[in-house]
Amino acid sequence: MRSSRCKRRWSRPFTNSPSSIAPSRSAGRTCGCRHLCTGQYEFLERSRERLKVVIPLTLLIIFGILYLNFRGATQALLVMSSVPFALVGSVWLMSLLGFNTSIAA
Asked: Could you give the angle at the alpha carbon of 62 between the alpha carbons of 65 and 93, nearest 5°?
């Protein structure tokens, strides 16, 4: 049988703040190491920089393929003008279906 007593596992409350993770400076010992708290924000910044190059390049390639297919800029621009509407529609559908919006989506 299990005991109804609850045993406390940690002696101090768990926090994610950098001050609770980093070693204290009062010890006076430094090894030349640097402690960084990184994660999703840093990943988001790198992804944002990459997407600033990839999205315009992709749209330019799509326009080039449409231009070669239609042999003119007018029809290619007409097709490219539907891209913002498709983007808004896809975001609405993802929202209605309850999907998480992320870089991968």
From this structure: 140
Check: CB of residue 35 under 8 Å from CB of residue 21: yes
Q: CA distances (Å), 39 to each of 15, 44, 100, 103, 105, in order? A: 16, 9, 19, 15, 19
The three-state DSSP-derived secondary structure of 1-45 is CCCCCCCCCCCCCCCCCHHHHCCCHHHCCCCCCCCCCCCHHHHHH
> Collapsing DSSP states into helix, strand and coil, what is residue 2?
coil
User: Helices 73-80 & 40-70, crossing angle to 10 degrees?
Assistant: 140
pLDDT digit string (tens) for 41-81? 788 888 889 989 999 999 999 999 999 999 999 999 999 99
Q: Half-sphere exposure of 78 toward its Cβ, with a 13 Å CA cutoff?
A: 5
34 residue type, one letter: R
